[in-house]
Amino acid sequence: MAEGPKLHLDIETYSEAPLKKCGVDVYAAHPSTELLCASYAFGDGPVHCWIPHDIFDIPDEVYDGLREKMDFHGEIHATREVPDDLRAHIEAGGIVSAHNARFERTVLNGTAGKRLNFPTLKLSQMVCTMAKVAAHSLPQALGQAASALGTYAKNEQFKPWMLAVSKPRNPTKDNPDTRWTPQNDGERFVGLYDYCNDDVKAERAIDKRIPDLSPFEQQVWMLDQKINDRGMLGDLENVDHALKLIDEYKRLLEIRCIEICGIK
């Protein structure tokens, strides 16, 4: 890993693919998956918020609200181009820390990142604070880990808004839109950006409190990531055949059970 301050990173995304059902790899490869924002900080520096849209696509009041309603001291990057400092750090092989780092790495290396020409995140430069808390037998969820450690408390206030904007919505008579956007609900997106910034602060505080994984543990974590990245080959045709045989055998067992019990 390159020397220098850690980059603490968190992202929020939108997709038509249901993450919990399909898993991160299918989610990251889905054509509808896109990056809504990326919040990041170098070391103890201010948290910056990158909103990967052309600044003219989003109402000015969204940016005004972002500055007014949040404890925000960093910069707002509203552009389709990856911020220079973010790109330079990643391309130089700088350390990137995230909570459940596989999500950030897989999504930003997938459809959403490629659409924005995001630099490739290499496994060798990643640090996962979820793995760090797991190694110390602490809760793995970000908010629960922060609570257990007594570090910066994760703010759950805007979580419902984050969940709402991350997936399609059912249109109504009053609002026919099939998803939330900064144009039809700017306040909701201000909450989203605040939520993302806050997660960076919570992750950074945990990262500072807990020592990094030992070199051996880091290698084990990287091996686990590689295994998940590669997946496992499966003979789906024979799996289908096996399932059909199981169903057939179940029917035979049911017939035999009826015969034994004398059921007519």
Distance between the termini: 73 Å
Helix count, DSSP H or I runs of 4 or more residues: 11
- Poorly predicted runs of 5 or more residues: none
Instruction: Report the count of strand segments.
Output: 6
Principal-axis shape equals globular
Structural Rg: 23 Å
| Strand order within the widest beta sheet | 4-3-2-1-5-6
- Note the run of SSEs as H and E: EHEEHEHEHHEHHHHHH
% residues in beta strands:
5-15%
Give an account of the 3D structure.
With 264 residues, the protein is an alpha/beta fold. The chain is built from eleven helices and six strands. It has a six-stranded mixed β-sheet, sandwiched between helices. β2 and β3 (48-51) form a beta hairpin. The N and C termini lie far apart (73 Å).
Outline of this structure?
By secondary structure, this protein is α/β, with parallel strands linked by helices. Helix content is about 50%, strand content about 10%.
Features:
alpha/beta, single chain, 11% strand, 6-stranded mixed beta sheet, 264 residues, 11 helices
List the helices and strands and how they pair.
Elements (H helix, E strand, L loop, with lengths): L6 E8 L4 H11 L4 E9 L5 E4 L8 H10 L6 E3 L5 H8 L4 E3 L2 H8 L2 H5 L10 E3 H7 L6 H8 L9 H7 L20 H24 L5 H16 L5 H26 L3
Parallel strand pairs: 1-5, 3-4, 5-6
Antiparallel strand pairs: 1-2, 2-3
